Amino acid sequence: MTEIHRGLAGVNVDTSQICSIDGERGELIYRGYDIRELADQASFEEVVHLLWFGELPTRSELDALRDGLRPAFDLPGEVLDLLARTPKGTAPMHALRTAVSALAAFDDDADDTSEANLRRVGTSLLGKIPAIVAAYQRLQAGQEPVAPDPNLGVAANFLRMVNGEEPSDAATRVMDVALVLHAEHGSNASTFVARATASSLTDPYSAITAAIGSLKGPLHGGANYGVMQALESIGDLAGVEPYVHGKLAEEGGRVMGFGHRVYRVMDPRATILKGVSERLAQESGDAKWFEMSLEMERVMDAAMEAKGKQVKPNVDFFSASVYRMLGFAKETYTPIFALSRTAGWMAHLFEQYADNRLMRPRLVYEGAKGKTFTPVDQRG
Ligand code: SDX
User: Fold this and answer.
1) How far apart are CA 65 and CA 70, in angstroms?
2) Which tens digit of pLDDT belongs to each residue from 172-205?
3) Mean pLDDT across 207-221
4) Nearest C-alpha to atom 25 of ligand 1 is from which residue?
5) What is the pTM of this model?
6) Which residues line ligand 1 (CB under 6 A)?
């Protein structure tokens, strides 16, 4: 009997040195470091260096990475024009996917897959993707894009390019933590797509564009948008329980922000973001979204326990209320996921190109057999 693994569930396609996930114990490790330590102490740029080079940077290595990033936030004028001409109301992930694909046309070495060039493209995208996300949010709101400040890191520059003002240290730190938590997660759908795309030895822009398309989906990175969409449609605390039970009563109904292919317990990133959301709620005095999230978690826990299932909050659940309290439009939540995951996607591309084998799984054919051709005028 031919074994089929739908969704490639549980299938090991290669080895990797980048990330380890223990779904039973709820542990996430980047290159040997526990995510809780990294979220607590590391900047996003330090985590980028860790993911790309295998070790946390020394001061001079961190300065070199930051120097390489300074010009990366600048966008070709033609790409800014493309964003400005994108029809109003176009979902930001459509705009991001299109703009990243367009960047290849302005890179004379786009097709060079040598390690040195991949690192150059990775550094360039690490600055250009946040710049695209920020510019598009402003253009869609009828505002002019804000030029990046080459002296700021990714988190602060992104906040500044979105809001048009210097971010507070507190907001920058929250953004940094969110970027660290979303940077990498093994062979998730979009990272697998990036590696599978690169395995034909196509260019890195094609691989990252494909990954953005995969991340956009509501079962993957699009879930954080879905969480806020649900909370907004519910409106208040009293509406949470009926919403959840209504959703669970639907055939195949899924409550966004819950469940995971690998974690059987709460996603450690959700635990950290829950704490961030609670702190932001206390500091802002606007506890509505955090309290509704807590209620949704309580109702889901009870409902799943009654069904004998382990369906816990994942990274997308509490990130929704965090981003809301940071002032982001919900349409920008998944693009924020994408600008962070560019770090992980590139780490996996370095690994794939360095020791490549074309990815080509099989499908067990169950279609028709033994048919003979008839000319079109003799067909019924
Ligand atoms: C991310 O893979 C990664 O690492 C991804 C990610 C990363 O960092 O890259 O962690 C980021 O994508 C997190 C996931 C975000 N997606 C969502 O929040 C969407 C809602 N979640 C589900 O669609 C689902 O949980 C998935 C897609 C995340 C996982 O799907 P699986 O592994 O295919 O599991 P399943 O859909 O077969 O569900 C198993 C059981 C089902 O019960 P039965 O139908 O078999 O009786 O658990 C139940 C489901 O009913 N279940 C849910 C549920 N998720 C699973 N029930 C209600 N609501 C949910 N969200």
Assistant:
1) 9
2) 999 999 999 999 999 999 999 999 999 999 999 9
3) 97
4) 259
5) 0.97
6) 7, 185, 188, 219-221, 223, 248, 254-261, 309, 311, 314-316
Nearest residue (CA) to ligand 1, atom 23: 219
DSSP 273-291: HHHHHHHHHHHHS--HHHH
CA of 219 to the centre of ligand 1 (A): 7
Ligand 1 center from residue 259 Cα (angstroms)? 4
The C-alpha R_g of the chain, in whole angstroms, comes to 22
Could you confirm whether domain 19-218+339-354 is CATH 1.10.580.10?
A: yes
According to CATH, where is 1.10.230.10 located in the chain? 223-325
Residues taking part in catalysis: 220, 260, 316
The CATH code of domain 223-325 reads 1.10.230.10
Tokens of 201: 């030895």
Q: Which residues contact 205 (CB under 8 A, 6 or more apart)?
A: 100, 101, 103, 104, 107, 110, 121
pLDDT tens digit string along 92-109? 999 999 999 999 999 999
Phi and psi, residue 20, nearest 5°: -125, 135
Across-strand partners of 21? 28
d(CA 155, CA 181): 13
- Which two structure tokens, joined as six digits, stand for 291? 């309290």
Summarize pLDDT for 312-357 with one digit per residue, the tens: 999 999 999 999 999 999 999 999 999 999 999 999 999 999 999 9
The reported pLDDT for the residue numbered 2 is 87
- The preferred substitution site among 219, 271, 273 for testing ligand 1, maximizing ligand atoms within 8 Å of CB, is 219
Positions of CATH 1.10.580.10 in the chain: 19-218+339-354
Neighbours of 306 (CB within 10 A): 9
